[in-house]
UniProtKB/TrEMBL annotation:
GO terms for biological process: peptidoglycan turnover. It comes from Rossellomorea marisflavi. It comes from the Bacteria. Residues 139-170 have a biased composition (Basic and acidic residues). This is LysM peptidoglycan-binding domain-containing protein. GO terms for molecular function: hydrolase activity, hydrolyzing O-glycosyl compounds.
């Protein structure tokens, strides 16, 4: 699976650098056609549940060009005028969180300093007004002084604007494709990586020679062989196989590894048959 990865800051807890460019960075990827949450989670050493939590997704459906966050950490570069209170308010964190993650002994921060924001290890903070007037007097006194900023620091930039929350993934395939039929089915998984398995599908696809193929076994009276489909939680595939136990609204999805096929289990998913 090839995924376009954004470049992130590689930073330890507290380092000094000249501020510039984006104020914060996280590890994001662009979904490619055929990607699944299961495959992305495996590649980045996380779980499907974590991916869904970080991206506000309630179903297993993802679509091409969708941006997904695949790490719980973000790195924020301090600018002149920033305070721990203001940064914690922007991210909905507590000042103690920021100090603990970055081994800070005081509330003083300086321009160019990079701070770790760890969304998986935070305690909630009460909603606050992020304007300067609302900041407590003692916090405003801890503003990074202009005179201490590195000489090469770029001119003060505007405060980063809060991005809109990630929207729940669409439940439809890409717009250029139309759906001929949609049905709910019971899905299990099978593999060609087993003793006695020929690895050749009912339509002649050799899965041992082509382990990256996305293939499902179907009842041809329900989903015709050769149909292009989209399977919730599996992605785009071809109906290229049959099975003795696959009757009615049942499908078998092909997964290269026998262990991973067993882990897939039995679940109810939505299948969209594409025109």
């Amino acid at each position: 699976m090839k995924l376009k990865k954004s470049i992130i800051s590689v930073a330890a807890f507290t380092t000094l650098a000249v501020a510039g460019g984006a104020s914060a960075s996280a590890q994001d990827i662009d979904v490619k056609k055929g990607d699944t949450l299961w495959g992305i989670a495996k590649e980045y050493g996380t779980s499907v549940d974590q991916l869904k939590k970080w991206n506000n997704i309630s179903s297993d459906y993802i679509y091409p060009d969708q941006k997904l966050t695949v790490s719980s950490k973000e790195y924020y570069t301090v600018k002149s005028g920033d305070t721990l209170w203001g940064i914690s308010s922007y991210y909905g964190l507590s000042v103690e969180n920021l100090k603990n993650w970055n081994a800070l002994d005081s509330d003083l921060i300086v321009p160019g300093q990079e701070l770790v924001i760890n969304f998986e290890d935070k305690s909630p903070s009460a909603p606050v007004n992020t304007s300067d007037e609302a900041a407590p007097a003692q916090e405003k006194a801890e503003v990074a002084p202009e005179a201490e900023a590195p000489k090469a620091e770029a001119p003060k930039a505007e405060e980063p604007k809060a991005e809109e929350p990630a929207k729940e993934a669409s439940t439809e395939p890409a717009q250029e494709e139309s759906v001929a039929k949609e049905l709910s089915v019971e899905a299990t998984a099978y593999t060609a990586d087993c003793a006695g398995c020929s690895g050749v599908t009912a339509t002649g696809v050799n899965l041992k020679d082509n382990p990256d193929q996305k293939v499902i076994a179907v009842d041809p009276s329900v989903i015709p062989l050769g149909s292009k489909v989209y399977v919730e939680g599996y992605g785009y595939a071809t109906a290229a196989d049959t099975g003795g136990a696959i009757k009615g609204n049942k499908i078998d999805v092909f997964i290269p590894s026998e262990d991973q096929a067993r882990d897939f289990g039995r679940k109810t998913v939505t299948v969209k048959v594409l025109d």
